[in-house]
Amino acid sequence: MNKNIPDDDQPDEATIQLIKCAFPNRLRDAEYLPLLYILRKDMTIRAASSLVAILVQKDVLEIYNDALGVNNKTYEQNIVHDLISRLEACGYNNWLDS
Q: 11 φ, ψ to 5°?
């Protein structure tokens, strides 16, 4: 259990499996903000921040603060497309629907 995430925001097994599949070697620094950008399109800022906090093992409030500004920036399209492909290959769309 991640002590930086409140108990009611702890990930379920499906979320853990999605993270392990899409990011088996952790999240690279260059992927951090683009991932928040992608997640913010489909999730609340709190949910996106909680998911990324698990990946980078940081406090969810720090991630939340970064997530506030992601829609005001541009990102390398090759990184964005790679992240989307990895997420979709690991069942991201089904995970969102669950």
A: -70, 145
pLDDT band for 5, please (50, 70, 90 cuts).
very low
Burial class of 40 by CB neighbour count within 10 A (0 to 12, 13 to 18, 19+): middle
> Taking a C-beta distance cutoff of 8 angstroms, is the pair 4, 59 a contact?
yes
| DSSP 3-state percent helix, strand, coil across the chain (nearest 5) | 70, 0, 30
Helix axes 77-89, 13-22, angle to 10 degrees: 130
Four-point Cα dihedral 62, 87, 96, 67, nearest 10: 20
pLDDT digits (tens, 9 = 90+) for 10-47: 678 888 899 989 999 989 999 999 999 999 999 999 98
